Amino acid sequence: MRRRLIVVFLVPLVGVLLVLGGAYAWSAARSIQQEQISQLLGDVAYFVTSARQALRSGSPEVVASEAERYFELYGTRVLVIDRAGAPWVDGADEQRVLDEATTAQVQLALAGRRGEVPEPAPPWALSDSVMVEPVIDNGEAIGAVVVTASGDIARETILRQWGLLLAGAILATSVGILVVFRLANWVLRPIRRVDRAMEAIERGEVEARIADETGPPELRSMILIFNRMAEEIEKVMSRQQEFALNASHELRNPLNALLVRVEYLATGLDEEWERDVEETREEGRRMTRILDTLLNLARSSERGAEPGEVDVVDVVRGRVEAWTQAAAQARVSLVADAAEPVLAVTDRTILESALDAVIDNAVKFSPASTRVEVSVTDSSEGCEIVVRDHGPGVEDDELAHLAERFWRSPRNRSTPGSGLGLAIATDLLHSIGGRLRVASPEGGGLAVHLRLSSGEPS
């Protein structure tokens, strides 16, 4: 996010600097060239006056010394042409031949016409600036003055200006980057604190708060609202924890009393009741484990106990055996299709509770004289329990709603239930790193897949 914020600030800043800097650089280059041309015009006017006097007197010494001195100081060549078109005075150390364009201008000057003023050119296309002026005496051209200024001088001046401009742009950009970084940190620091507080609350540290309220006013308001929300969440979770703690304590006593009565009644029953009594004891012990899990959740604010090594096939067989009688009353055959042990690192009580919810749902919606099959498969991705019934099933567009709380298919509204079974199973599996998936297999009915994580047993 900081990167995006910095880009949002820097791109306009760099764009403005490029536009303004480019415009200033071009304007400076044009200004330097205009200044050179103005100076060239002044020099031409001066040397025209000197050349007129020299040509009148026929003595080139005065104008020659000035032309040579001018060339030494400024590198600008001054050439005086006589009436015949031959060089009369040349201030340069080396005699250079005039190019065709300059020769043409000289011919026009000897005819009494003034030369054209040089036009400014882009800095990379600068060449020598040439100005040709006729020397007029009594309305007649008696010669011409050619002043040639090197383009290197103007180019060096322009590059120097551009260098200073580039240094200023780099300095301005550096200051802008520093300001943007400071501004981004100032804006994003409260957001990072909110992120850390939210991560702490996600880990179960519901007492996490944001103490520092620096930053923009809008973010300070957000922090204040966040702290209020966190306090409300802590209150709600505290009430839920107290309720779970009280419920687990309140249910433990009647459950213990019920188990005592079962043991007392078992002493007066025949041996044919021994299996039913043992199943009742096992269900009582399972309810005790559920209460222990509920109590542990209330005390530690964690879902369930520490995971351990569990034989998933043994769990499936135990729950199928526990639900066999209820399935028989509904005239449904409940079968466990699992043989070899399949080990997984998970919470046994939570897995049993999730499987109970799915089996209960399958038995409830299965027609009489049908089968509910519970199988276990193992792979590198983790083990999976599949509860397959042969009931009416649901439409394909209804599959995604089966795990939603209180949702029921319109065709099954008359069947008793609250629509919470698969939703509870989904939440329970999610708490141990698993997931639940519902599919419509071939032949009708539903197949509920309980996928456990691929953690290796210790």
Automatic annotation (TrEMBL):
CDD domains: HAMP, HATPase, HisKA. GO terms for molecular function: phosphorelay sensor kinase activity. Keywords: Kinase, Membrane, Phosphoprotein, Transferase, Transmembrane, Transmembrane helix, Two-component regulatory system. Residues 246-456 form the Histidine kinase domain. It is an enzyme of class 2 (transferase). It comes from the Bacteria. Its EC number is 2.7.13.3. The chain crosses the membrane at residues 162-188. Residues 185-238 form the HAMP domain. PROSITE patterns: HAMP, HIS_KIN. SMART domains: HAMP, HATPase_c, HisKA. PANTHER family: SENSOR HISTIDINE KINASE TRCS, SENSOR HISTIDINE KINASE YKOH. This is histidine kinase. It comes from Microcella alkalica. The lineage of its organism: Bacteria, Bacillati, Actinomycetota, Actinomycetes, Micrococcales.
